[in-house]
C-alpha cells in the first residue's frame, strides 16, 4: 500500500509539473534555468548533482546506441508536431493576410461563406449607398460586387483540380491595394479575359499570359498574373458581369466588398445595413471574416498535430524509460558508491533527470532545426471547400519553442521514474550487483 501511494503521488506530481511546464512562457523558462544554475553553483546538493551529471554524461560514449534511441525518437516527435503545426499556421496566415480593418464584406443573412450567399442588384445598390462607404474622386462608391464559382483546371503535375474563379467589378483593384500585377495587364470588362494569381499560375497548367483556357464551356484568354501574398493568389479573376452571364447568375453577386471611409466608420455602416428593411445581410470587416474562415481548418490541423504528437510521444517516452532504466542498472554500483561516500538521493535524482533532459533537448533541437530547414516557406495546397488554396508552411519561433517544450516534457517523463529508482537503490544490494 505504501508503495502504491508513493507511485500515485509521483504520478500526480508529474501531471502537475507537466501542466505548469506547458503553460510556462519562455521568460518563465529562462527564470527556471537561472534558478537551477544558481542552485547548482551555490549549494552543496547542487554541486553534487553537477558532479554526478558530469560523470553520467561522460559515459554516454559507451551508451551511444541507447542514447541515440532517445535523441532520434524525440527528434521525430518534434519534427512531425512542428511540421503539422506549421502547416496550420501557414494556412491561417495566408487567409488572414487578405483581411483589413478599413474594408468590410457583406453577405446574405445567415451565410458563413461567399458560396452560401446571394445578393441581388437592388441589394448591391442599397449597400453602396449606405453611410460610411468611401468614394473616389468622382464620387463613385468604392464597392465591388463579387461572384465566386468553381472552375475545372489541370494541374501541372497531372490530374484535374478545381480553382476558384472570382468575378469582380473594376473597383476590386482599389479595394485591395496590396495586390500587384507582376505580368501582363488587367482584364477588360465585357471580354472573356482572365488575370490569375501567382499561386494558381504556379500550380495549374495553361495559365501563362497569352494562353487560352476553357472554363464553363467558354474559352478565356489569360492576360495577366497578379501577386497578393494571401488566398487571392490561388484564384482566377474576371469581369463579374461576364462570369455571371456564362454561369447563368443574372445580375447577382455572392458578396459585396466595401471600402470604408475610415476604420471607425465600420460600426455606423453595419448599423445602417442592419436597420435597412430592404436588406437581410451579415456584415464583418475582412479581417474578421478571413479569421473565421481560417480558424476551423487551422483548428483541425492543430488537433491532428497534437494527437499524432501525443501518440509518437508515448513511444518516445517508453523508449526513454527503457534506455534510462538500463543506464541506471548499468551504473548501479557507481551510484551506490556515491551514496556510500555521502551523496544524497536528491543530487542523484537531479543528475539522472538532467542527463535525460539534455538528451531530450538535443533531440528537440535536431527535430526543430530539420523542420525549419526543410519546410519553412515550403509551398503546398489544400482544399478550402471544393477549391485548392495555395499557402506556405510557416515554421515560426513560437512553434519551434512549442516543439522544444514537448521534447523536454518527454525527457522529464522518461527520466523521472529511473531517477527515483536510482535514488531509492539499496546501497548494499547495489554494491553486490555485477
UniProtKB/TrEMBL annotation:
Identification of the protein by name: ABC-type antimicrobial peptide transport system, permease component
Taxonomic superkingdom: Bacteria
Topology within the bilayer: Multi-pass membrane protein
Keyword DNA repair: no
Domain named ABC3 transporter permease C-terminal: residues: 307-426
Organism the protein comes from: Aerosticca soli
GO cellular component terms attached to this protein's record: plasma membrane
Keyword Cytoplasm attributed: no
Alphabetically ordered keywords of this record: Cell membrane, Membrane, Transmembrane, Transmembrane helix
TM region positions: 6-39, 69-87, 303-328, 348-375, 395-417
InterPro entries: ABC3_permease_C (IPR003838), MacB_PCD (IPR025857), Macrolide_Exporter_MacB (IPR050250)
